[in-house]
Amino acid sequence: MARGLNKVMLIGNLGADPEIKYTAGGTPIANLRLATAESRKNKEGQWEDTTEWHRIVMFGRSAEVCKDYLKKGSKIYIEGRIQTQSWDDKQSGQKRFMTEIVGNQMVMLDAKGSNDYSGQQSQQSQPRGGQPQQQQQQSSGGYDAPPDNLPQMDDDLPF
C-alpha cells in the first residue's frame, strides 16, 4: 500500500529574476517566484484571467542553472513537492506558515533563439547576402510546437 504522494507540476512565468543564496557549506539555493494563469467565465459570462503565485526553491546544480539561464518572464516547467514551514513570529508571538514548492526538476520552455539567457540579444545567422534568414513559423492549430528539451517518455506500457 502506498504511503502517500506529494507531487506538483507547474508551468508558468517567472515574476522576478532568480534570487540566489549559498549555505555555509557552499550549496547554492535558488528562490523563484512563479506565476501560473488560467481563464474562467464569471457569472456574467465574461472571461476573467486569474493568476496564482508560487514560491519555488531549487538546490545544488539546479539552482546554478536557474541563476545562469533564467530571468524575469522566463517560461518554465517545474516538478517537485509541496513543503510547509512554520515558525513563531517574534513581534506578534503568533505561529506563521509558509508553503513552497521544493523543485527537483526544471525545464526551460522558451523557444530556442528567442531568448539568449546571457542577457544579450540573440543574433540570427546571416547568409552570404548579408540578410537575416527568416524563421518559418509552423502552424499547429494555434499552439506552439512542443519544445525540444521536454523529457522523453517510454512507449512501453505495462498493460
Give the gist of this structure.
It contains 1 helix and 6 strands; from the N terminus they run ββββαββ. By secondary structure, the chain is mainly beta. The protein has a domain of 101 residues: OB fold (Dihydrolipoamide Acetyltransferase, E2P).
What does it look like?
- Strands 1-3-4-6-5 form a five-stranded mixed beta barrel.
- About 5% of the residues lie in helices and about 40% in strands.
- With about 160 residues, the protein is mainly β.
- The chain has a domain at about 10-110: Beta Barrel (OB fold (Dihydrolipoamide Acetyltransferase, E2P)).
- The protein is globular.
Key words describing this protein structure:
mainly beta; five-stranded mixed barrel; 159 residues; 42% strand
Task: Chart the SSEs and their pairings.
Blueprint: E1 8-14, E2 19-22, E3 28-41, E4 47-59, H1 61-69, E5 75-88, E6 95-108
Parallel strand pairs: 4-6
Antiparallel strand pairs: 1-3, 1-5, 2-3, 3-4, 5-6
Number of helices: 1
CATH superfamily of the domain at 8-108: Nucleic acid-binding proteins
Largest sheet report = 5 strands, mixed, barrel
Kindly, what is the distance between the CA atoms of the first and last residues, rounded to a whole number of angstroms? 20 Å
Order of helices and strands: EEEEHEE
Low-confidence stretches: 113-147
The CATH architecture of the domain at 8-108 is Beta Barrel
Sheet with most strands: strand arrangement:
1-3-4-6-5
Q: What is the name of the CATH topology of the domain at 8-108? A: OB fold (Dihydrolipoamide Acetyltransferase, E2P)
Fraction in helix: under 10%
Number of DSSP E strands:
6
Q: Under the CATH scheme, which class of the domain at 8-108?
A: Mainly Beta
Helix/strand structural class = mainly beta
